Automatic annotation (TrEMBL):
Occurrences of domain TerD (ranges): 20-158, 218-385
Regions of compositional bias (Pro residues) in chain numbering: 168-206
Pfam families hit by this protein: TerD
InterPro entries linked: Stress/Tellurium_Resist, TerD
Region: Disordered, residue numbers: 166-213
Protein name as annotated: TerD family protein
Amino acid sequence: MTPGSNIPLSAARVTVDVAAPVRLDVSGLLLTADGKVRSDDDFIFYNQPSGPGVTYRSGGGTAPDAITVDTTAVPPGIEKIIVTASPDAAGQTFQGVEPTATVRNGDDNSVLATFTPPQLGSETALVIVEIYLRNGQWKARAVGQGYANGLAGIATDFGVTVEEPAAAAPPQPVTPPPAPVQPPAPPVTAPAAPPAAPATPPPPAPGSGKINLDKGRVSLQKNQTVSLVKGGRPLLSQVKMGLGWEPAYRGKDIDLDASVIAYGPQRNHIDSCYFGKLQIVGGAIKHSGDNLTGEGGGDDEVIMVDLGRLPQEVTGLVFTVNSFSGQKFTEVAKAYCRLLDGTTGEELVRFDLTSAEPQTGVLMAKLIRQFSGEWDMTAMGDFVKSRTVRGMVKPAAQAL
């Protein structure tokens, strides 16, 4: 398809996925005849994945996110569903990125049409395709309209309420207690409707504690904390910490190594899991193995943690990444970590490094067992001079 062209839909259920060389957040908005949503409930995205006749599906970082429209279930008064896309990394534009939307039959997955918007530049969000009703017939139109102010600009344009986020307060220093270590708990603020990228659930009411996983995926900034609690119950099952990066600029390979260091209640080092020791603490922590270049889609190295099987003596885990080849993180295109449900593969928490320092090691995130038995995850992003996990043990302990 070309911009402005349209096709009649031969299927009642259609799925629109948007693929790109970078990870995209895809969402859908249900619009009335005046081109506005009826309420914020008509904005469908990963924190609100379903609405009347419209659902969101995450690709989990290895496949494109998608919006499915069941035209037989779209409520009266809704005449258009727009599908939007924005880069997941904060501040990233579509310069050099060619997203392709594919419209598929929702039942057999056959391709009905594809569309790649031409000549993208400073846009940080796009209305890429719309599914619309015209004279009783549902059709798909290629749009490709860009916004320089991100997904929040699109949301505001179509009537979704967007609040400006306040700055997060700095973390408070932690003094090691004799019992399990408590992490810092800075207040977390986020807009009620999604910001440019990526979206974060709204902050808790005063006195209600840290954010949890009830509203879906949480995107952390440095020093922010999320409690691994869903529906009032702590996660006591397998989780995966995926760590990823892109190859170094100028085509050089870079050998980054992901590790996890286990600590006891006095910040005492229990053991380290890395490419040279793929299992620790009785197999409750397992490493996927070494990736020497960062090539390939999805996570480069994965560490599986069975929270329910961890010995009681393990009260803190610190996830680290080292540049074994000696190159500095300023030469790495980007690095991230994300926590996934080990059973379903659902992404729970994500932390992207938004800045880098000329060092060879970074403390990415920590998991701390609370007195109540639940676990908290805090984004760290602290750089250290160390090419191996051995050199990370002391600074990681000090950061607990």
